[in-house]
Specification:
The structure holds two protein chains of two kinds.
Chain A (H helix, E strand, L loop, with lengths): L1 H25 L3 H24 L5 H31 L11
Helix pairs in contact in A: 1-2, 2-3
Chain B lengths: L2 H21 L7 H18 L9 H28 L7 E6 L5 H11 L5 E7 L2 E6 L6 H15 L5
Antiparallel strand pairs in B: 1-3, 2-3
The chains are: A mainly alpha, B mainly alpha.
Chain lengths: ~100, ~160
């Protein structure tokens, strides 16, 4: 049972990583790519950590895996802000949809 | 030693001990190094963040965490679907808005959290002015930022 739930969570996590990478490749500018990386990858990581935590051998090991999530979230939010601000300082204009 | 300091030492000491227990996965022989690490971390935490300088409300933290986890999922699903549909699904734009939070720490926190919330990435925080990049201009971003601001204000014990 735990095996099954864990596999499911890991697959969902892998899907979000895939979608985040797809966004990184397909989106038109640095700002849109940050959306894909900051949000999809972090959710993917959350699911993968949860999937690993439920098959951990001890409570402490499970909590240790879960603890990685907020730390990576903090780092990734800060890095995303740093990249966006640098792009803005360099005068990179956000991509806009052409009106028909 | 005054009671405020005593309570801060006990609470932070307990929290740091718990963290150490997690990091060492409950190994008993790690506690010698643990006492040194916990002591150093406690000293640093009291120096960098004096007791009572920022009070985090527990109820406020709970409310924020619930909102945060739900909206992380929403944001992730939304951007994943956009990525699958490619750039023809995007309606990006920028948005300037004014934050109402009085102190800088919660404002920085808002700017950081918005990078993980649906449709927004913080581009520049200048005092109270915040510039956002939004992935879809048709989304009700302003209302969602306000809702987040109210939750964070409550957590930091502020009124907006």
């Amino acid at each position: 049972m735990i095996e099954l739930v864990s596999t499911l969570l890991l697959s969902v996590g892998a899907f979000f990583y895939f979608a985040g990478t797809l966004g990184l490749l397909r989106f038109p500018d640095v700002y849109c790519r940050l959306h894909a990386l900051a949000k999809a990858d972090n959710l993917g990581l959350g699911f993968i950590l949860l999937g690993l935590a439920i098959q951990a051998e001890s409570l402490a090991a499970a909590l240790k895996l879960v603890l990685i999530w907020p730390l990576v979230l903090a780092a990734s939010a800060t890095v995303s802000y740093a990249i966006a601000r640098r792009a803005d300082t360099l005068g990179i204009k956000p991509w806009r949809r052409e009106e028909r | 030693m005054n009671p405020v300091m005593m309570i801060a030492i006990l609470r932070r000491g307990a929290l740091l001990s718990f963290l150490w227990w997690i990091l060492t996965e409950g190994r008993r022989d790690a506690w010698v190094a643990g006492f040194v690490a916990i002591g150093a971390a406690l000293w640093l935490s009291l120096r960098l963040c004096a007791p009572r300088s920022t009070q985090i409300s527990v109820g406020g933290l709970g409310a924020f965490l619930g909102y945060f986890i739900w909206n992380s999922v929403r944001g992730g699903v939304q951007v994943a679907l956009l990525a699958l549909r490619g750039r023809r699904a995007l309606h990006p734009g920028t948005l300037e808005l004014q934050l109402n939070l009085a102190s800088p720490a919660p404002r920085i926190f808002v700017a950081n959290v918005l990078a993980l919330m649906p449709g927004t990435v913080s581009v520049r925080l200048n005092g109270k002015r915040l510039r956002l990049h939004v992935i879809d201009e048709r989304m009700p971003i302003v209302a969602e930022v306000k809702a987040l601001e109210v939750l964070i204000a409550r957590m930091f014990g502020e009124r907006v």
